[in-house]
Amino acid sequence: MIMTDIIVAGIGQTVVGEHWDASLRTLALQAIQAATQDSGGLKPQVLYVGNMLASSLSRQAHLGALLADYAGLTGIEASTVEAGGASGGAALRQGYLAVSSGLADVALVVGVEKFTDVIGPDLEAALASQTDSDYESVHGMTLTSQAALLANRYIYENQIPAGGLANFPLTAHANGVGNKFAMYRRAIGLDVYTKAEPVCEPLNIYDIAPNADGAAALVLTRRELLPNGFPHPVVRLAASTIASDTFALAERGDMLWFGAAQASILQALQKAGFTLDQVDLFEYYDLFSIFAAMSLEAAGFAGRGKGWELARDGAIALTGQLPCATLGGLKARGNPGGATGVYQAVEATAQLRGQAGQNQIEGARLALIQCLGGPASIAVTHILETML
Amino acid sequence: MEIPRHWRLNQQRYGLVGEVCPHCDTKIFPPRDICPACGQDAKTTFAFSGRGAVFSFTTIYEAPTGFDETAPYTVALVKLEEGPLVTAQLTDLGEAHPEIGMPVEMVTRRLRSDGDERGMLIYGYKFRPVLKPA
What we know:
The structure holds two protein chains of two kinds. Chain A has helices at residues 24-38, 54-57, 63-70, 87-100, 121-128, 143-158, 167-176, 190-195, 259-272, 289-299, 307-312, 329-333, 340-353, and strands spanning 6-13, 46-50, 77-81, 106-113, 198-200, 203-204, 214-222, 235-244, 281-283, 366-373, 378-386. By secondary structure, chain A is α/β, with parallel strands linked by helices. In chain A, β5 and β6 (203-204) form a beta hairpin. The longest helix of chain A is centred in the middle third of the chain and has 16 residues, at 143-158. The two termini of chain A are 22 Å apart. Chain B has a single domain (3-129), classed as CATH 2.40.50.840. Chain A binds chain B through residues 120-122, 124-125, 127-128, 132, 134-142, 144-145, 148-150, 152-153, 156, 199-203, 246, 248-251, 253, 255, and chain B through 9, 30, 36, 55-68, 70, 73, 75-77, 84-89, 100, 111-112, 122, 124, 126.
């Protein structure tokens, strides 16, 4: 039973991109320092690191101790949380549990991924380690081809017209323009999308978010522990949930339904006492366009097979009924792997504080964020709310 | 080399051997010992016929290590006639374009090569279009 509000007291992030000059630890440190400063200098007792692939991409495991040491926090509790692409969201949940239980007063959550030290087949192999080793990746399956198999069937069953998913990346790119931390800050037109070569049919390069380096951090505390003169509008974590689904895509009884995404959102809304129509913005996990469409359906914003229509009709634009990927999403901000869920929380907090600049959703009070591991084999959902 | 890791899957890889639930008769592949339909123990082995139809497919151009020499290749979800879906490559397509619903049958092929000339060759199931009588 939570008797107090859990506050996102500090947020920090690096630009997402190809940081040839920065290592895993230097990226993480930048985000940690920014978040700590933003919180007014709160001192954490616990550190949770969200990371997906450092063991294979950076030949570096044991990130909890590494980053606590490197950030000058030696002595505190520290460990890594891994849940595939949802690692950042899962790390945030650990921070939420630590602070809401009273076992820690201040938690530091950092998501970090260093993709660009490895390229080509070795990067594809590392990514494919998130699929079933014995029954998927041994057949040459990759994360991208999992999404392509989903998209192919989705288009077939729902008779989606050619280019029906185009407005997901177009919206993301339009929103990336106003985010100084985004990897891509240029809008693209429909003609660019339409002319793109297929990468993994039916996906083209714009249906796939770019892997990139980045780190984001959050400082969490309870409301009564906020420093005097805390300078920001107060944003609380109203709910935190995780749900799981079958691991391998082939073993899912109903392949075109993200059951874990649905369950984690239903539980979050129920725990926080909100309904979908109160949500002012939705940061979905648009690693692939098809994931965005199916996430909208799983959440209940669209009927089954109709999620793409919200994109087509402009409902997900900044000025639409349900703004999504408001600072570029994975597609334009970039996909920093296990840091993604933390970036989403940073961005949602910025929106709810009124700090989102030209991308600000006027009057935003309630944000829904969700990250996924694999084809929604894990879904992590958080609800953030501005406190009056 | 990871020889035991592949050796212990020989039955599945070469014979498409899964399980049948003794309680509700659900056919299970890959084997998992707990029936996904009824939740009870299911350890009775069952050899699948290897016949099925393409449920979805795509072609991979940017392949992981071990597959980059055979790219591009086509992977599919195949709906076996006994019920389960299985992930596998399509092979022997020739001039045929894969499509959803295409009837296919299991064959044994090399799945990947494990490194240099001394590396392990891993064999297992792929699916090809059903051969028609000449």
